[in-house]
Amino acid sequence: MRAIRAAGVWDGQTWIDDGAALVEADQVTAIVPSHAIPRGVAVEDLGPDTVFSRGFIDLQVNGGGGVLFNDDPSVAALEAIAAAHRATGTIGLMATLITDSADKIAAAFAAVAQRPPAILGLHLEGPHLNAKRAGAHRADLVRLAAEADLGWLDLVPSAGHVMMTLAPECVPPGFIARVVAAGVRVLAGHSEATPAELTAARVEGLSGVTHLFNAMPPMSARAPGLAGAALLDPAITCSIIADRLHVADEMLALAYRLKGVERLMLVSDAMPTIGSTMTDFLLAGRAVHRDCDRLLTAEGTLAGAHLDMAGAVRGMIEACRIPPSAALQMATSTPARWLGIADTARSSVADWVTVKLTSTAG
Fold first, then answer.
1. Is the dihedral of CA 71, 76, 80, 83 positive or negative?
2. In this structure, is the dihedral angle defined by the CA atoms of residues 306, 292, 136 and 175, taken in order, positive or negative?
3. What are the counts of helices (DSSP H) followed by strands (DSSP E) for the chain?
4. Residue 351 is among the residues annotated as catalytic for this protein
5. Among 46, 48, 207, 214, which residue has the least CB neighbours within 10 Å?
6. 55-339 — its CATH code?
7. Can you name the residues that pair with 283 across neighbouring β-strands?
């Protein structure tokens, strides 16, 4: 047996200040306060301002390691993306394909069917979005839902977990119910759905909202919009980008207060710049430039994020002044539970991550 001691330890359910993970045969078997470490056990001390946590689950990853999944929907690309994010603590991710052609969707399913273990499945962000809220998606590929767009449902069983982000106001009645019945988890995003339209979608099985506040109308006194409706609906789980660029600190705090750790999950929306030195790439045919941690099109539109999940955890802690355990839950057990991943009491120490609570950026 050995012990890994840190300022805090999080196993996905329990937080212990000044704690330790006990490891036997490369399995974490228990977490205990540091004073309860058995005598004679070798101790690795991670030092102050560092936590030891179960690895992250990221439900929205566009790329990494210099690879964009839309450009290269292949097994090799998935391996490169998974490796880039594993280096920053993400042990499971949803490969995300933004709005594209039917052929590209089919290619993405074919790649994910042969996925490496860290790839949990496929997240289709589009193509059935509101063109007025397309953001960095190609407007010419955004389209209303039609029967011809459902051929991919037959591919769902081979892809592990499947998510689809759509605009509820841009699909016909019954569409969401059919997709959900095929085993797909549906979220609202890139949308101008009214509260009534969100409620109707939820009745059909929609259960989430993608990157809350972004690509949707702002809340106002007489029009709460998609964001306001999602915040107030206890059945909706929201993802949010906590890079402190996509969402103001005050809005991060508002989402945390209204949704709590059980209904708010952190996502990176990461682009190929993570795990690489690239500063320029093409997204849906549009040039994107990295300016510090901002990824911007020539028009100044944010195009995904240069963010990993450890950075999202730090961003949430700093913006909302919340305990590390709360931010870690939103990056681990909450997305895992929403996606339907079963937890296990014992876990490989390789699936744990060391997280600095403060940024080392200069």
1. positive
2. positive
3. 9, 20
4. no
5. 48
6. 3.20.20.140
7. 286
Q: How many angstroms from the chain centroid is the CA of residue 101?
A: 23
- Catalytic pick among 11, 58, 100, 269: 269
pLDDT in tens, 226-247: 999 999 999 999 999 999 999 9
298-346 confidence digits (pLDDT tens): 888 899 999 999 999 999 999 999 999 999 999 999 999 999 997 765 6
Location of each CATH 3.20.20.140 domain in the chain: 55-339
φ/ψ of residue 299, rounded to 5:
-85, -5
Under a CB-based contact definition with an 8 Å cutoff, are residues 50 and 6 in contact? yes
DSSP 208-238: EESSTTTTSPPP-SS--HHHHHHHH-TT-EE
Helix (H) or strand (E) holding 175: helix 175-181
- C-alpha 91/C-alpha 209 separation (Å) is 23
Q: Could you tell me the pTM of the whole model?
A: 0.96
